[in-house]
Amino acid sequence: MGRKVHPIGFRLGINKTWDGRWFAEGENYVDQLHQDFAIRELVMDNNPRAGVSRVEIERFPGKVKVVVHTAKPGVLIGRKGENVKALRKELEALAGKKIELEIKEIKFPDLDAYLVARNIADQLSRRISKKR
Fold this sequence. Notes:
Layout: E1 20-21, H1 27-46, E2 52-60, E3 63-70, H2 73-77, H3 82-95, E4 98-105, H4 113-125
Parallel strand pairs: 1-2, 3-4
Antiparallel strand pairs: 2-3
């Protein structure tokens, strides 16, 4: 049996960057890490149809920058940006700091492994024929 290597951990710093770019020590580290998990869960659960693949988080003194990589930015933004405003308010309530929200479009969603796997899982849950 071969050795199993984590696909992200093996490539970090070489050809892939960290999803969370910040530094903290002690109890601050634990709090901010749990806050990162909550931010990612909030963004992905609030917008299941937007095709959110990755959420990057950078922390600066007094603000948090959140970059959302999505296949369908129009669904995430909403009409006249109303969904983004609501999402920003929820994130600011969760983090307790000013949130800078940036949305990046994934040009080729068929090449993103997470989105392909999510699509297959959704099709199976909707009982679409596996031969398709």
